[in-house]
Each structure stands twice: as structure tokens, then as C-alpha cells.
Amino acid sequence: MARHLTSNITSAYIEAANKLRPKSKKRKIVAYVESYDDIFFWRSVFSDFEDDETMFQVMLPSRKNLNRGKKTAMMNRLGESLGTCMIACVDADLDYLLQGHTPSSAKMLDNPYVVHTYTYAIENYLCYAPSLHDVCVMATLNDRNIFNFEEYLKQYSNIVYELFVWLIWLHRRGRFNDMPLTSFNNITAVEQLNVYKPVDALDQVRRNVNKKIAWLQRHVPEAKGKLGRLREELANLGVTPDNTYLFIQGHHLMENIVDAALTPVCTILRREREKDIKLLAHGNTQQMDNELSCYSHSQFLPSQMLRRNVLYKECETYQLLQAHIERVLDRKGNKEQTQQSKQESSL
Questions:
Q1: Mean pLDDT of all residues in the chain?
Q2: Whole-angstrom Cα distance, residue 168 to residue 31?
Q3: To the nearest whole percent, how much of the chain has pLDDT over 90?
Q4: If you count DSSP H runs as helices and E runs as strands, how many of each does the chain have, helices first?
Q5: Burial group, residue 124, by CB count within 10 angstroms (0-12, 13-18, 19+)
Q6: 3-class DSSP state of 90
Q7: CB 3.0–4.6 Å: which of 54, 61, 82, 295 could bond 113 by disulfide?
Q8: Residues 306, 127 contacting (CB under 8 angstroms)
Q9: pLDDT-derived band at 342, boundaries 50, 70, 90
Q10: Residue 6 has pLDDT above 70, yes or no
């Protein structure tokens, strides 16, 4: 009996339960997310919205099985029951930029209680360029800045931007086979990056991208003259030549572009710190070994620190995400109602 009740909990049920609680109790909003990795991200997001009246509980989408993912979070008996007290929090993938041209895009965008990332995925926020130096510091405890992550991702974005516009144009028309996402990822991967001379690896990406664009111009002539309007629309959605990295596949960005620089940079910074320790020990082997051991135990893998990065909240797309949550909370409406009630009680 208890299982049956649990499986049929809806937003209306939670809302009714909230109304029965004493006035001092907080309004509870259940937020369903796609996977374990998403829980910490959405918790850090919702922490900024909790107050004396509202609290969030971030949960996996199913209590009955191990099913995970976007579809489960949105559609596993939740699509009809989402509301002000039960929301789904998902990666936008390409659905945000496809703007309803595919069924999955329409399902995500048509439901106001499906909160999406506005970037491709959570990983894109974790790889927010201005935060990556701090990630290196957290991993290595060395604050020397030896690599310009912001310029690196800006140049990378400018290189892949035009091909990305082609990707969206084709996918909006259901022409996935002309450029599958895996093909885009293979073409735009950064390989053999030298952090002291990253331009060489970026030039190789540029050659790969230009070759594919030339192929598309020959084989998809009907796109001629139509990409300009799409560029304008994408700009209105937040995509620019300088920030395209925020909208490409998140795992691809993290593993094949950012980590190509992050890991070698952190390796160099660790070696520098270890060299400093050896020099400062002045030949005292025991002191040197103790200090090196202490330093070793204080380090973390760059990938671990990247997964716990919360320094992305200045990102423009994050402001869109926050505005979406504000609409779900309808705080403006709640404040006006509260003010009206106070005025009526004083009369």
C-alpha cells in the first residue's frame, strides 16, 4: 500500500501536503535530476534560492528501479504531474537550440516545469573558462598562472562556430546523417596539445573544420543564403563565436578539449611545487620527504576538482537558468500576494 502511494505522488499531492503544514514550515519543492553526477550541481544551484519559506530536495527520478537519464526525469509518469512543487532538472543538450523543431526539443521547451541548463549540459558550466585557473589551484595548490584558458576556449570557439551553425541547421531539419553529433565531435577534438604552444593543435582543428565545411557547401547547396538568419537566432539564444564551447556536447568539451589543457597544466604546476620544496629543504632529506609527502596528500586529481567546480555562476547562460527558476517560484507574484494580504489584515 505504501509503495502504491509513493509511486503516485504528484506535484498537486506535494502542494496539498505543503498547505497542511504549519505556517512556520517551509514550502518543499522536489527536483528530479538525470543522474548521480547531477545532484551536486543542482544542489549548488538551488541553495541560492532557499530561504525561510522555500526549500528544495534534489532526487533521482525513479524510486522503483535504476532507470536514469533525461527521458526518465521528464517522462516517467512525471510529465503530467510536474508543477510548482515538483520539477524536472535536465541537460538542455541541443534541444534548447533546436527550438521545438524535434519532438524531444518541443517536449522540453513546452513544459515550464522542466528546468534545463541552457548550455548543452552541466559539464559545460564546470568547464566555464574564467574558472579553470582556480580549478588548477584547487588541484595543485600552486597559484602560478601558466596557461590562458579563457583565450584558449575563445579561439577554439571561433574555430568551431561556423561548423556548429551547420550542425544546428541540419539537425533542425532532421538531417542527422549529414553530420551526426559524433562526427562533429571527432572533427573538433583537440589532439596532442602543447600548453606552451597551443596554436599548433588549434590549427589542426581549424583545418579539420574547414575541410568539413567545404564538403557541406558542396553537398548541401540548399543551405546557401539561409545560415545568416540562423546565426542571428542563435545569437538571441546566447550563442556567439566567442562562447560556442558552452553549447557543444558537455562530455566532449570536458574530455577532448578542456582536459587536453587542464591535465598537462596541472602536471607542470605540481612539478614546480615539488621542485620548490626540494630547493627549500637545503639538503635535509627527512624534512624534504616529509614536506613532499604532505604536499602529495594535499593534492587532488584535476578531474575531481572540475566535478566540484562551482565558480560558473557569472556565466551569461547561468543567468537564464536562474531566471527560469524564478519563474517557477513565481516570487514576484507571491510577494504581491503577501503584500496584499498584509494590507487587508491592517484594514
A1: 87
A2: 29
A3: 68
A4: 18, 4
A5: buried
A6: strand
A7: 82
A8: yes
A9: very low
A10: no
